[in-house]
Specification:
Chain lengths: 372, 389
């Protein structure tokens, strides 16, 4: 409904793809795209890619990237995210980020706001080293953490830290739509200096009488509108009509848990929508046994005994293609769907989704799912 | 027919290759640790430079291809035809060797770029990537120069080792090799069909058919492109373009055959028996890779054009590490060989090729001691010599 691309722009893409299909035969085995991208790096007849066209450092450890996507982008709804792929030291990394801009930008571009996490390979790279002109891999917008249509009459948008991005996009989108229902924007961060879009939030609240921005700086008592962590009293102070509000929460797990528990107790669990982005992954010690090993394509699950994925797959009755069984021929390469695996030869640990791994030299560490 | 031991072959006459070099299990382990250290050093340094390098190569190859095909539209001018054909030949060589061979080895899998992944890459030859990955990455690189297991020893057609039983058909060893050289891509494509095993009854046609069908499909696409679509696009220059494409394909065939045969079959490279490799250690695996391979000397351009297979020894030690590093570690590998008293076979392209030709010729002649036991007791796979070479 609020996509940037009206349906009429979809047909030419299909046509383009069909014509390129013909060209592919002429230049086989390398598809036409592989030639075109050498001249125009964002061009692809199938993939969503984008170019970073502006970079803004609002706080010391965050960055807001403006991305111009290629024509395979279909727009987004406020609250959705993309899987962003960047190359760092020659290695591709993919992470999900919520759009932070309004879904109604007229130039077809969107913004991502990224906060550097101390151990975050990708977030630290984006904050410190992203440059205007960089080409990034994208997906179409994903996720159902979105506002219903018609918009709820009363909204409570709660966020903590970098969880601000999807609800910031919602607020900007609602303001662009001229939405006149009450919106309370309750945001938590450590200090005032950590707050993203501070000036714009003030401006939006000033311009739109139905928008109320409530800030809590948990490490800086007295500096914000309220103090401390989420509580019933705090909520009462921020939005006295909270019982009538539809709630969207995104942030650290304790914040989301607290809001959900509060509404559960009030019998209003159905009014809360949460977006869990940064769930801490439970990673077992290297060499530990246990956990569940799931073979997604086969629909099989087994209790992991710590041996290599290939051995366990075979024990489970599967017959994955394989060759040398010593890691050199790459015949048994498959995608890691989720979880952590350890290379039994090098000790290297891999925990990124959709990365290719060799079954014969990798063993699961904790719960693992494989595309097999 | 699939015996794995040779009881009629006294041990004294066939000592384990490692023992001949005075290496016991402990020494082989030490050798393995030294080579592992070199490997770790390369892995630690992998990064943006490697990706930039292979992308430059891809850009160069695609540029040459587009330029070469473009020039053939002016193929009525002899210099344009010659330049176009030459560019297309170089493009195919780069695509197959420095790019295709190396990418399909998984040398760039660590980048997680689908365009550089071993399983995602498809090269410009008639051989489907999947099949090559099976015969080459698995059979050839795991069982390098083990007669009866490494099907690259003679490609099921030629007699390339004393350990392969002689058959009268091998009198045609040299002409058969010349034919394989001209039609190398087709040879590589048919390699996985294993005609020799079909003939001996070890494999049924039904088992071989899917492989053959996929190979023929890819051949149809590849031939359709080079010998029909592009010639048609050049209109009246149909035959001129077709000829240019044929020269490029055959030129690439000759070059690839030369580099590959010089990498494993010059006199002095070793073959191994199945039993001496049973349950082998990592050190013995390294040892076998070094003795079964030979390097070719040359300049920078030559190394790139050979896909760095001119450093065949280093490639066989570390087949899944980016080939651009082989040159830098070659002195260390050579030093290790000297210290362990192992040969490090290297020579110029001319001398290595001459040596290969002499070997093909020599092995084609009936051996003076064509002992019956050799024939009956040889390892699996080559018991039945191809009747028609």
């Amino acid at each position: 409904m609020f996509t940037q691309s009206p349906p009429s722009t979809l047909a030419p893409v299909g046509l383009l793809r069909r014509s390129i299909g013909l060209l592919d035969a002429l230049v086989s085995p390398h598809p036409f795209d592989r030639y075109a991208e050498l001249v125009a790096p964002t061009f692809s007849s199938t993939e969503v890619r984008g170019r970073i066209v502006a970079i803004e450092h609002e706080t010391a450890d965050s960055v807001t990237l403006t991305v111009a996507p290629n024509r395979n982008w279909r727009g987004f709804e406020a609250g959705q995210h993309v899987a962003l792929t960047v190359e760092i030291d020659g290695v591709r990394h993919t992470r999900c980020y919520s759009m932070s801009s309004s879904a109604h930008r007229t130039d077809g571009r969107f913004q991502l706001t990224v906060k550097a996490h101390p151990q975050g390979t990708v977030s630290r790279h984006l904050v410190a080293r992203a440059r205007v002109g960089d080409v990034v891999g994208l997906t179409v917008a994903q996720g159902d953490f979105t506002l219903p249509t018609p918009r709820p009459a009363r909204l409570l948008l709660v966020s903590g830290g970098s969880g601000i991005t999807p609800v910031l996009s919602m607020l900007r989108t609602l303001c662009d739509e001229g939405h006149d229902g009450d919106v309370t924007f309750l945001h938590y961060c450590l200090t005032a200096a950590d707050q993203v879009a501070a000036a714009e939030l003030d401006a939006l609240a000033a311009r739109h009488p139905n928008v109320r921005v409530v800030r809590v700086f948990t490490d800086e008592p007295g500096a914000g509108d309220l103090d401390g962590f989420f509580s019933a009293e705090q909520l009462e102070a921020a939005e006295p009509h909270w019982r009538d509000a539809t709630v969207y929460v995104c942030g650290p797990a304790p914040l989301m848990d607290a809001v959900q528990a509060h509404h559960d107790a009030a019998g209003l669990a159905g009014q809360v929508r949460v977006e869990a982005f940064t769930l801490p992954q439970v990673i077992a010690e290297a060499g530990a046994v246990g956990g569940t090993l799931r073979f997604d394509a086969s629909g099989l699950s087994v209790a992991s005994d710590g041996r290599t994925l290939l051995e366990q797959a075979e024990e489970a009755g599967l017959q994955p293609a394989h060759g040398c069984r010593m890691g050199i021929c790459h015949t048994c390469t498959r995608s890691l769907r989720c979880g952590t695996v350890r290379n039994v030869v090098t000790g290297e640990v891999t925990d990124e989704a959709d990365v290719h791994i060799r079954l014969c030299v990798n063993a699961p560490v904790g719960d693992v799912a494989i595309d097999l | 027919m699939t015996t794995t031991s040779t009881p009629d072959r006294p041990l004294a006459l066939a000592p384990r290759t490692a023992e001949r070099y005075g290496l016991d299990a402990e020494a082989l382990d030490a050798l393995g640790r030294e080579l592992d250290a070199i490997r770790d050093g390369i892995i630690a340094g992998l990064g943006a430079e490697d990706v930039a390098y292979i992308r430059r190569m891809i850009k160069l190859q695609r540029g040459l291809e587009v330029g070469g095909r473009g020039l053939l539209f002016a193929g009525f001018l002899p210099p344009a035809w010659l330049a176009g054909t030459a560019m297309l030949t170089v493009s195919k060589i780069l695509d197959n060797m420095e790019i295709g061979h190396n990418v399909m080895h998984g040398q760039y899998d660590w980048t997680r770029d689908p365009a550089l992944s071993a399983t995602g890459f498809e090269w410009d030859t008639v051989c489907p990537g999947d099949q090559w990955r099976h015969t080459h990455n698995h059979l050839h690189h795991t069982y390098t120069n083990i007669v009866g297991k490494d099907r690259d020893v003679g490609y099921g057609v030629l007699r390339m080792s004393e350990d392969q039983p002689w058959h009268p058909a091998h009198r045609a060893n040299l002409p058969a090799a010349a034919a394989l050289m001209l039609f190398f891509e087709e040879g590589v494509m048919l390699h996985d069909v294993e005609f020799d095993r079909l003939q001996s009854g070890e494999k049924t046609f039904a088992e071989a058919w899917p492989t053959l069908r996929d190979g023929l499909r890819k051949t149809a696409r590849s031939f359709g492109k080079d010998y029909l679509f592009w010639p048609l696009l050049t209109g009246p220059l149909f035959l001129s373009t077709l000829a240019g494409n044929a020269v490029a394909n055959i030129g690439r065939n000759i070059w690839a055959f030369t580099i590959i045969f010089c990498g494993h079959f010059p006199e002095g490279t070793h073959e191994f028996t199945v039993e001496e490799c049973e349950g082998e250690s990592k050190g013995h695996w390294y040892f076998r890779q070094m003795l079964g391979s030979a390097n070719i000397g040359g300049g920078r351009v030559f190394h790139v054009m050979s896909g760095n297979l001119s450093h065949q020894i280093e490639h066989h030690l570390f087949p899944d590490l980016p080939a651009r590093h082989y040159k830098a570690i070659a002195p260390q590998v050579q030093e290790i060989c000297e210290r362990y008293g192992l040969p490090y076979a290297t020579g110029s392209l001319g001398s290595q090729f001459g040596s290969v030709v002499r070997k093909i010729w020599r092995l084609g002649r009936k051996p003076v001691d064509a002992v019956a036991s050799r024939v009956t007791g040889s390892p699996a796979g080559f018991d039945v010599a191809p009747a028609a070479a």
